[in-house]
UniProtKB/TrEMBL annotation:
Protein name from the UniProt record: Sodium/bile acid cotransporter 7
Keyword Repeat: no
Key words, A-Z: Membrane, Transmembrane, Transmembrane helix
Coiled-coil annotated residue ranges, if any: none
Organism for this UniProt entry: Orbus hercynius
Species classification: Bacteria, Pseudomonadati, Pseudomonadota, Gammaproteobacteria, Orbales
Keyword Transmembrane set for record: yes
Cellular component annotations (GO), alphabetically ordered: plasma membrane
Amino acid sequence: MKMTDLSSYSPLIFAMNIIKSLKIDPFLLTLITVVILATLFPCAGNVKVFFEYLTTFAIGLLFFMHGAKLSLQSIINGIRNWHLHLTIFIVTFAIFPLLGLGLQIFVPNFLSENLYLGFIYLCTLPATVQSAIAFTSIARGNVAAAVCSASASTLLGVFITPVLIAFIMHAQAGTGMSIIDAITSIMLKLMLPFVVGHLSRRWIARWIDSHRKLINQTDRSSILLVVYVAFSDAVINGIWHQIDALSFTSIIIFSLLLLSLILLITTYGARLLGFNKEDEITIVFCGSKKSLASGIPMASVIFPVSSMGLMVLPLMIFHQIQLMVCAVLASRYAKRKD
């Protein structure tokens, strides 16, 4: 065997092939690396204060860019197909949270109170934009509707998610979270940059459209920064003494349960409501997704830094599971005969 042949079997290449075959999101691996970094080298003191200010700025920039990317035409197109988007909206912000509340029957025997609240937060999040559109396209669904719906979900989620989480957590856990404070914080730190970004689109749209890769890197860098700060504080407060192998197993099991239920509801619900196959695909992939890109920055605004690590852990695991399952589902839809 030649040396070139042997090099193809190096451990690094072998590991990369496994990752590709399992369809593991490379960004999730980066997130895990950041969590490990925060575990080994948590920021504290003045360094922590600096990173918190930097995080606030990065999140504001992130939502400014989200607003700038959303065109007025996509909003207008969304209004035209209102019955499809209303269905996805109900699934995202009503049915999903109700399923999350149903997990309370497993507390505390199979799910800790903190992880349960993390699932509640997961269930109130808007849909993810990029993967929802990508899977709809692969499955030969209504891509235009997916673009409109996912974009609208992100816009509405900035306001609806904190209101839902404030109401639910106040009622379920007695956290004392002030609904007014939560809304005010979201409006100033997320909604205001979003609106300013959208209003600035007429001047910066061309630059935004020609620098998509840079914008995506800004999105991901902001998320990584938030995760590092959150897990640094969580490590200092003993998160790894609260999470064990059984807890991780519980998160995986309940993530699979939630995803299975929502896929069944969206698939058969779309058929019962008389949607065609293309619209059914859009409902399935837009209704079943939960946004890591929006969820982590919003968590940093809604929750104290000390508790944020536990709050986003179910989201990080659910995110990978939804990508793997929906990749298989999209391939099956794509093979159908029209």
